[in-house]
């Protein structure tokens, strides 16, 4: 083929730049009121100046150029002035505003919309722009707006100690934990939302780009300090705007950590856009230099970071970062139209000095008014045309290279980074002279463009449409790099049962909605598959996985490319099965919400002991991992042995999207605790199950054994404390207090019976003892009292201490909520007073005065008898549709106890450690 004539090559390149459709990777919503704008309003399309500084804007080069180009848009003479444009604009929007918007957005394939800029009521939603683009627009979520919305909601729920109450350090600390937990939960939800393709931070405006990267505890403490000292005192007056440095940094760090975890889980992470450089007078110009982000960039190498606005005037710094770090990208928006023509061309040249063209992204930063899109697109294309034409004519680039780079900048780089799934076909025009006299912005629909959705899936990327709770939108969950899906459920004796399905088969099941069945009799078997009296060979259950529970299995062992999903049971008609513990807990939670406007959250503590294993003459022997060890110590032995392993566990948890709030050594040798975040009931139990499974797998991969046994060694008890909070978006503080009192009254009245579900094994009752900081001996409660079974740890938070790791937590929490609901339904009075000291140190008279008159059961048979004979509790569970579940639990645990009683004490002890 003969080489293309240089002039033809230039013409072809120029026509490509003028007509290539764009993916606008950063812009904002349009205002609803467009027909009547003021002089200074429209100036916002060409300058970041405000107030008195706008007086001088008409003498700037960007202003003069914009006047000329807006005259073209509104078909005014060249001599028309700004006031003439405003008059013609008002007339045009009154006649047909859609036509103006369509022309301004012509050539735009899709827009990624940061919709956190202003009051949503004043703006069209992000998807309203779909009417003017070739493909649907997507969202960019501004993290500071998410935070402000959560803080406002917490204030409305009376959960923020604002004003003078900020001096209460405990209340402030609790509020901070509640906030950051809610924030991280919101971010995780957004990560799973297909309408959202990335995040945005304006930390540059608030406190600067020098985000403090450090240990989790340092970031948390800095956030708490800023929250208490700089935010709570005046947050109501400032509209809950987050602008305290420690808080701002914590938001950025938390978001990046969750995105890094998403990358570990799926092989891909959504990006974070950072405002850098050019901005209004709110910013510190010094702290808007993207070089300040270098520590953050290095800390999170798997999180894509987009430096917005060409970082003007720090474009070279941004280009350096995009060159040296694989996760950094340089956006070149906003300088069009806010910088002069020569300045824009200089920005592009500086960006290209060392930055790979595969790392440069196109945007307009269009906002409020469609003219902002129009001017940015026109001027941006003109600048690209000038720079790339010069490089082609000078021989720096060939025609093919020039056109390939232009396509990458305008379309393909954003398409790839944000996972949009489009394909850019042949857009080279056949007649390069055809549109020489047309506007540089040409509609993409007139181009020879082939765009199609890339929706093919392989065995390593399966899309699964799943339903959230009733009435919520459908969301697509993608299982990436997965070969096998481990569908799992927790049986009645707390054994994780599993069915492994190849990903192609699972995808087929997902497509038809037909999963697999198990025998109904499987509900009546024990850990060794021996049968209980309820084991029937007749009937079946359909196992329905919940795709929201998708997490990778631990990838550090011998199994690779596997994921787990937790499941529930449905009948042949697809209805939730009455003996499915997971479904029962979900329905009880929904009943609380519908009947009493209460939403529960629960945070679990995982206490466990890590053991060496060795074969002895009498069987497997277990010894604690480290012995120079006490509560919250950090000895040299722990430094070398225990804490490296604990760090490995917590790292692995974060890799699958579970971020513990803390971990520390417990009182016993080899004993540690991991604190999980508070979550809605079913989600909390799901997370607990998957966290424990991973914990066991990490420890086993190191040739050790982790056990949840309630008393694996004399005097070393392990619990599974559950911190339950009662929350409401509609009830007042006093109304929640009243519900809590009745809830607690029901809980205390039926606590001896509840122990049959909370401590379901004979081994559990070794912890029922005085002076051991376990659950104590008495049915009692107390504020910050760790010698009672129920501790009040916050104004709306209760710690259930008579609970251990052998319980099926779906069943245990269902029973707790049932007893609490019984108290509320019958308006039970709270007759037991808060116990101010260790009950074992009080005499009978003192105990009676407190209303403490009943002891906890002393063994599993006693507890199961009490549970079975508690007719009031059983009636309430029947009303909740959970009585069949609870009765099956009683039968299963009696059979388990009988089976274990046939073993000698040593065999029984080893048997439990090997399984729990």
Automatic annotation (TrEMBL):
Keywords: Kinase, Transferase. The keyword Repeat does not apply. Pfam families: Amidohydro_2, Gln-synt_C. The keyword Kinase applies. It comes from the Eukaryota. Residues 581-916 form the GS catalytic domain. PROSITE patterns: GS_CATALYTIC (PS51987). Transmembrane segments: none annotated. One of its GO terms (molecular function) is kinase activity. Gene3D superfamilies: Glutamine synthetase/guanido kinase, catalytic domain, Metal-dependent hydrolases. InterPro entries: Amidohydro-rel, Gln_synth/guanido_kin_cat_dom, Gln_synth_cat_dom, Metal_Hydrolase. SMART domains: Gln-synt_C (SM01230). Belongs to the glutamine synthetase family. This is Glutamine synthetase/guanido kinase. It comes from Polychaeton citri CBS 116435. The lineage of its organism: Eukaryota, Fungi, Dikarya, Ascomycota, Pezizomycotina.
